[in-house]
Write a structure and sequence with these properties.
- The protein has 552 residues and is of the alpha+beta class.
- A 13-stranded antiparallel sheet has the order 23-24-27-28-29-17-18-19-20-21-22-25-26. A seven-stranded parallel sheet has the order 3-2-1-4-5-6-15, sandwiched between helices. It has a seven-stranded mixed sheet with strand order 10-11-12-7-13-14-16.
- It is elongated.
């Protein structure tokens, strides 16, 4: 049996770790390929394998690959974003010589597009997989394991936090810099929204039994194949991906540069890759050699409960850069044993999380899976009576990440000048017999933000648990005014009476407290409906609107 594995970029950062591992296996012929014969030879002298000089951009690369007669071709060269007009020339060369193909792409478009070769790959009887790396290969294996038993996946979020002492390849740095400050499409709540690369910084702490925790690492949004592939593959309402740098100086500095790109002061940061790599290398002695990865899945179980499930990987002893090679290790073993499904596709669920964890045992790694109940804001406030609500209302208030709702509404406004002023201050829409409605409900650290758009008019409110988590109560803030709402739920509807309020933090006297007659119910079509009326004492009605919503 042919056991020859050709590793392109075989002496680079990730390719080098992979070549070293494969060369250590018995009965394996590993070809370590790259542009530099000197570097390839020096690598093989230290770690094994046979050096090969190969330029993947050369016009005759396909014939040279065929002459090597490999059984498996692994492209670890990249950057895959820069493969130009013929991005799949290596995969096509593999199919032509009937070799299986794996690549370590982290580029969403490249990985998603590999499916165009599915027909030729099937005809040749070979497996062609793109994204055989931490994402989407390993992250999809974790997401699949965590999703078992969930009937409604609300969010899948992956986070990668490398240690500062991990080697940094120029192609990886260029990949990050190309995205920093640029528009980034995120699938949230069933539709796309635009964020900014290296934005929305969060402080994340990770722990797993048997390893010291990683505390207060910064992480920000960045592009990954998961963002493109997971929404359809897992039927997930939201998919997020974050990455971070160990040193806050480096993470924050990149965030500042990304801000310059966002406002147009810089076109992009890719041209600064070499000087920024030089600066990062000078800071390598600082920080840690410990990194981590986390995949989080939250949603509704088949019993109707909501759960958050987490897979955590903590890696030590500088083994972090070896993690992206784990999927290729697993898949090479499967291919060599004849476990092959021909065709070309992104590397999604190509192996199980158990198989990945078994391969991770060769590293200084600790993994852990955990499950915790997740209670949406209204379910927390209402307690057992939440489950008595009609299913459509329960769904309306099941906000774990972002929910989008659309429908129609009519609006009436009070005619008193004071009521019109109050409505204008809050941002209530003008009167109309019918208008399109879009409501976005977004989970936050403190509660939920509701953004209501009636036609072209938008206003927001901020909901949170009542003080001391008083059962049956939430607060809702409109601008400088905050009201306590006494929720009352039943099998028919949900009502929202206001019991007290504050303006600029000061209690409102009873004669200034607005009267709210608000209820949600379900119509004959099974749609969530709302009917709201707000009036001021001695002034009269401020606003009233009613209509229906359906989920996006």
């Amino acid at each position: 049996m042919n056991s020859r594995i050709l590793v392109l970029g075989g002496y680079g950062v990730f390719g080098g770790y992979l070549s070293e591992h494969l060369a250590s296996l018995p009965d394996t012929d590993v070809l370590v390929a790259g542009r530099s014969a000197t570097r390839a030879r020096a690598f093989c002298d230290r770690h094994g394998g046979s050096p090969v000089t190969l330029d993947i951009s050369a016009p005759d690369v396909a014939s040279k690959i065929a002459a090597l007669a490999p059984h498996i071709i692994i492209d670890a060269a990249g950057p895959f974003q820069a493969y130009g007009a013929a991005p799949y020339r290596i995969a096509e060369a593999a199919i032509a010589c009937e070799a299986h193909y794996l690549d370590l792409s982290d580029d969403a478009a490249f990985t998603a597009g590999i499916g165009q070769l599915d027909g030729p790959a099937r005809a040749a009887g070979v497996m062609v997989l793109s994204g055989v790396s931490s994402v989407p290969a390993l992250s999809s294996a974790a997401a699949a394991a965590l999703s078992e038993g969930l009937t409604d996946i609300h969010v899948i979020e992956s986070v990668i936090l490398p240690g500062n002492r991990a080697p940094r390849g120029l192609s990886v740095i260029r990949s990050i810099l190309r995205q920093a400050g640029q528009p980034l499409r995120l699938w949230r709540g069933g539709e796309f929204e635009t964020a900014t690369g290296w934005s929305d910084r969060q402080s994340i702490s990770l722990s797993a039994s048997g390893a010291p925790p990683l505390k207060n690492r910064w992480a920000s949004f960045i592009g990954a194949p998961d963002l493109v592939l997971f929404p359809e593959h897992f039927n997930a309402r939201s998919v997020l991906f974050r990455a971070g740098l160990d040193l806050k100086l480096m993470h924050g500095g990149l965030g500042w540069l990304a801000g310059l790109v966002r406002i147009g002061a810089l076109k992009n940061l890719a041209s600064f890759a070499r000087p920024l790599k030089w600066a990062a290398d000078r800071l390598e002695p600082f920080g840690s050699d410990r990194g981590a990865m986390r995949v989080r899945v939250a949603g509704k179980t088949n019993t109707g409960a909501y759960e958050q499930r987490v897979w955590t990987l903590i890696i030590s002893s500088g083994d972090g850069p070896r993690v992206p090679t784990i999927p290729a290790r697993v898949l090479c073993r499967k291919i060599m044993s004849g476990d092959v499904t021909p065709g070309a596709r992104p590397c999604l669920e190509a192996f199980t999380l158990d198989e990945a964890e078994q391969a991770l045992n060769a590293l200084d790694a600790v993994t852990e899976r955990s499950t915790q109940p997740f209670t949406p804001l209204f379910a927390h406030a209402l307690g057992p009576s939440f489950n008595q609500l009609p299913p459509a209302l329960q769904d309306l208030h099941a906000v774990i990440d972002v929910r989008h709702w659309r429908g129609k509404a009519s609006v009436i406004r009070g005619t008193n000048p004071v009521s019109r002023l109050a409505g204008w201050l809050v941002g209530f829409p003008p009167a109309t017999p019918s208008t399109d409605v879009h409501v976005a409900m977004r989970r936050t650290a403190k509660g939920e933000t509701w953004t209501r758009r009636f036609g072209r008019y938008t206003f927001r409110s901020y909901l949170a648990p009542a003080r001391h988590n008083a059962p049956g109560h939430v607060t809702e803030r409109f601008g400088f005014m905050t009201f306590r709402i006494d929720l009352t739920g039943s099998a028919r509807d949900l009502s929202f009476p206001v019991s007290n309020g504050r303006a600029l933090g000061l209690p409102l006297p009873a004669f200034l407290l607005p009267a709210s007659d608000t209820r949600e119910y379900v119509d004959e079509a099974g749609r969530a409906c709302f009917d709201l009326s707000i009036a001021l004492p001695l002034i009269g009605q401020v606003v009233g609107y009613k209509g229906y919503l359906t989920p996006v």
